[in-house]
Amino acid sequence: MKYVAPKVSANSFTCPHCGVLSQQIWNSDNWYLNGTQSMAHVIKVGHCQHCNNHTLWIKEMMYYPETGNCPFPNSEMPDSVKNIYLEAASITIKSPRGAAALLRLAIQILCIELGENGKNINDDIKKLVSKGLPEIVQQSLDIVRVTGNDAVHPGLIDTDDINVVNRLFDLVNIIIEYMIALPKKVSGIYSTLPKDKLDNIKERDK
């Protein structure tokens, strides 16, 4: 199913509660600081027509649920990676920089899941490339690695920009899709081929 990022006042988007692309009904109010209208903050509440849960927005930013606009983790994401991914999602609104650093840690843990030692993420990516890692996955890994590094060291990437960091969540899901989900799907279909066909393929590849 296509993922449509939540956006304030949008007629529909992928609900961060149920994961369904569904219609949203909106209510709004103003929040006046110190009783002055000039300090008004527009508060909007979206109501998902599929699961009946709500999203809470102040101006353009979603504050509830705390995972904000982050996409759901890929269903094939290992639990060790998913736990860090969800932790990153939960702090994205308050600390995009912290979320970027956590996503870098997530792909370091993923490298361990893929058979590398996890001590040096740059070396792990190099080894995965030597094993035939697709270029698009290598680039995705390096984007998350470099951005995450800049989150904890002075750099040129603005990891305080929530839009920059939100793109990293998509990349982590892309990495999981290429490295785990697709091979699993193909392997499952391949194994259903007739035995004589599989034997012929093995003989051909000798």
What's the helix and strand layout?
Blueprint lengths: L11 E3 L6 E11 L9 E8 L5 E5 L2 E4 L14 H13 L4 H18 L7 H10 L4 H18 L9 H29 L4 H11 L1
Antiparallel strand pairs: 1-2, 2-3, 3-4, 4-5
Helix pairs in contact: 1-2, 2-4, 2-5, 3-4, 4-5
Write a structural description:
Strands 1-2-3-4-5 form a 5-stranded antiparallel beta sheet, with no helix packed on it. The chain is of the alpha+beta class. The longest helix is centred in the last third of the chain and has 29 residues, at 162-190. It has helices at residues 79-91, 96-113, 121-130, 135-152, 162-190, 195-205, and strands at residues 12-14, 21-31, 41-48, 54-58, 61-64. Helices cover 48% and strands 15% of the residues. It contains 6 helices and 5 strands.
Average pLDDT value?
84
Biggest sheet statistics: 5 strands, antiparallel
Query: Beta-strand level of the residues, as a percent range?
Result: 15-25%
Spatial ordering of strands, largest sheet:
1-2-3-4-5
The counted number of beta strands is 5
**Low-pLDDT residue intervals, each spanning 5 or more residues:** none
- Helix and strand composition category: alpha+beta
Helical content class? 40-55%
